[in-house]
Amino acid sequence: MSSRFRNSFAACAMLALLCSCGRERRQESGKTDVPPIVKSASPDTVFLGSSPPPVDRRAAAFEGNADAIAKGQQLFLWMNCVGCHGRGGGGMGPALMDDQWRYGGRIDQIASTIAEGRPNGMPSWRAKLTDEQIWQLAAYVRTLSGQVRKDAVGARTDTMSNTPPQTQIPPEPVKPADSARQ
Amino acid sequence: MIRRGAFLAGAAAVLSGCNRYQTSLGGEAAESANFLRLFWTFMAVCTLMYVLLVGGMLIALWRSRKAREALVVENGRHHASAPILRPLLIGWAALILVGLSALAIASFVTDRSNAANASHPKLVVTVTANQWWWDVQYSLQGTTTALRTANELHLPVGVPAEVILESNDVIHSLWIPNLAGKQDLIPGRVNDLQLWPKKTGLYRGQCAEFCGLQHAHMALDVTVESKTDFARWLTAQKRPAFAPQGPVETAGYRYVTSRACASCHTVSGTQAGGTVGPDLTHFASRRSIAAGTRPMDRGNLTAWVADPQGLKPGTNMPKIPMRRDEVRAVVAYLERLK
Amino acid sequence: MRRIVAGIIAVAAIVLIVAAILWTQRVNRSDTTTRYAAAGGAKAVPAAAASPADDGNWTMPGKDYASTRFSALNQINPANVAKLGVAFTFSTGTTEGFEAPPLVVGDTMYVVAPWPNNVFALDLTRPGAPLKWEYRPKPAAAAKGVACCGPVNRGAFYSDGKLFLNLLDGHTVAVDAATGNEVWRTKVADIQKGETITMAPLVAEGKVLVGNSGGEMGVRGRLTALDAGSGKIAWTGYTTGPDKDVLIGPGYRPPYPMDAGKDLGVTTWPGETWKTGGGSVWGWLSYDPQLRLVYYGTSNPGPWNPEQRPGDNKFTSGVFARDIGTGQVRWFYQSTPHDLYDHDDINEIVLVDWPAKNGQRIPALIRPDRNGFFYVQDRRNGRLLSVAPYSFVNAYKGVDMKSGRLIPAPAMEPAKGRVVRNICPAAPGAKDWNPSAFSPQTGLMYIPHINLCMDMGVQNANYIPGTPFVGADVKMYAGPGGNRGVFTAWDPVAQRKVFEIKEDLPLWSGALATAGGVVFYGTMDGWFKAIDARNGKLLWQFKTASGIIGQPISYRGPDGRQYIAIASGVGGWAGAVVTMDLDPRDPTSALGFTNAVKDLKKRIAAGGMVYVFALPQ
Q1: Would you give the distance in Å from CA C297 to the centre of its chain?
Q2: CA C498/CA C506 separation, integer angstroms
Q3: Contact between residue C250 and residue C236 where contact means Cβ atoms under 8 Å apart
Q4: Contact A87 C455 (CB under 8 A)
């Protein structure tokens, strides 16, 4: 291998490594720009001619951020989300790893669902978690159905559950649930 | 010579910086005393050998300088040195043998002694490490009564205790130098540590295995007290939390038990039953805040409640947007939790 | 001469062989002193006072206070059951698990649907049984989010012109059976704390007995007695806490020392964990009018993670006998002390008069427990008469008849950092809520149950009111043999299996025994089956629209004919994968049940419907 080739290979590798740096920017609580959780981001609905409001650009800082996703994953366990939604397959609550979204599958819609609760049993977490924690949770929930970049999600968990690794989950198209199940 | 003097002076300065709260030279428990004895034995033996070796070397140097002047080499042979060298070498080898055996025996005896101490614990405490705080649970013999506290360990003097070590996230290590050596806390494994404190006092333990951003702020306040004091502490800890007094504390009580605080913390006797954060039932009776980050007082407590990330960046306690009167109320209520 | 010698030798040999057989038999019998031979022909019979003569009605889910689920009607028999056909059907328009049995009083059938708990009264006198009235209680939808195992309802209770039922959101209601108008409504459970009600109430002596659900939500279990006339709360007996809350007084006589002591509901728990310790009362109640005692079991302790609650965790996973007038506890027996695997004790309790060795009849209760053992107990004092496993059990080593205590298998204990594999029975037990039937004709208990084992790992559970309080990862799968369901005919006197039918899917439906010698049950893929009560031979089957997890009943119609009714509508814990549209890629979903019924979604869809069958006229 010529030394020039080796050098350029090393440079490319370095560049590639640097590219993925953004995925793990640490978010210190209280110092991140947290978008407000908008109530109207709730279910997919008819907007009477106009289009649905776009996702707040600040929400993107949570989505695809390994730090936010990891914290969301921890909260998913700590706040007992796992008791109803399992490791994504559901139980008392609906599955989160499939392609059906009763109240919308965008990150702001998920955050709104967590914050406000939903009439069929989803409790409201607005008073029990900070907005930042809710965005982190929403970011993690998006990973369950493979909606975020693969280099930001954890490849494994520490539990006995043998769900497919999140890096292996094919991205599900986001669809509304059929109305009968709402 | 000057350099050596400087080194000694520096070492003395460093050692004088050690306080009695956190030193491995204290020997305040059976284990640390045993190890301290072993340490001094090693020190004595090694020092003796070192002195002999250096002395021998100096003599050899001095002798060789003299020999170069005095000795005559006849037929390519050294005559004079041989009769002294042989017994010296044999003696030296014997000394090494005896010294090493003595050290081996001493360390064996120490280990046996520690193992014997460990065989009959009278008190079992489970310490679970978290990023970045210590969860402490007492299981009292003969009952299922369990006590949960955090970042503090109370031990009665003269009572052998077994500390069960677990971890909820990453590898930590518990080190209370005054009482015992380090022991790792590994997620998914159960380790243990034996403590048989012999002297009352306040000591400081800390995490001794790098465990993340706030590794340095993960201390454990250890109190070794008389049996009666320990019994009194235990009785106080068994009580449910004090009820709030007055409107400000009541407002704080309402906030703590119904809002985000209750998602992680327990205040026994209320509906706050979270187990992922430290138990707050007798929070105000502790010596420090946030695993030894700050001493317990109103100013620090207010700063901690208002912005935990300012005091301990990266901690899992989030900054909760609170009004100033809410902070005051929560602090007032927390101070009631003696 | 030689012939005579040969004859003598042959006779001697025969005598020796017969003597040897008799002797070995005697040895066998003395080996199993706790078992009683059924060979004597003595059968258990239902407690007479709790099981009056059949009037052709079906007024309570258990058929009678003795909970026999036995109909004395005998028009349908093994010879003609094959001709059984649909008489009429009725759709409730629900898609949740349909566990409730229809009730029949006179010429009206009452159907209680799962959430939203609508009640339909059908006129049996007219062809096709048209709707007489409908009652819509409108319970809060949020209750569905805290109902651990589907928003089901296990039935109503008819008494004295009123229909009593529990709503999922924690209310008990009384409805005028003639008009469908609500008479009273009382709140007895709080969904904000994770409490729901799914059980069928029991009404006796003017009291409506109601228990809460939520053993997976950190609730504090209790049984509440309401005044049947006014709906006012008469007494509440908690499962955990100090004696005054549990209603333990001077009349408390526990059968074994392990259940004796002061304030055991506090001292067998660490700290204040008894306040969130479960022990809910979501299963079946039986009542002895002679002793005036109500019998029921309590649920698992919470959380599932046993490391968070060292101790016996009284009075969870055990059986209470309470005085119906005051609620005072007469005796308590803890079947599963310090439960490790969600082995509730809420299964049906059948009151029988049990033949003792000396020919006397002992007032007893018999119950197939979730932990895999079949218990026979003296119902006056709770003493064990005999215990035997009716299913494959490796999670326990047996029951110590002297101390009454279940013997645990330490190797199977889940602990932090250690996943325990192949625990049998799994979390739903050898048998879950779905009730057995007892036939006095055959003396057999017909037990529809499951054959599942599980892997279990534990982690810290965080208590937040209104959220699950479990702390366990569970994954279930078929037990030995590979069949997930079993229908067992069990002789409670000899404590032995008479026959068993292996079913592919878990059995989640109740059973019905009839005097015609036919036994009915349903499967989760929708087959409603009639079998011969003596040998289990399949006599007839019918495919219903959805999976069956309901309870079959039999009644005499206004036209004098015998009818059989069953609700179809898959759901509940076992069917959540269908009703909640769960993702089977996650083996731990539905608290681990999904892994055992991965194929169910491909075999059946949801939908609530009542089927009524009769012989052709």
Answers
A1: 10
A2: 20
A3: no
A4: no
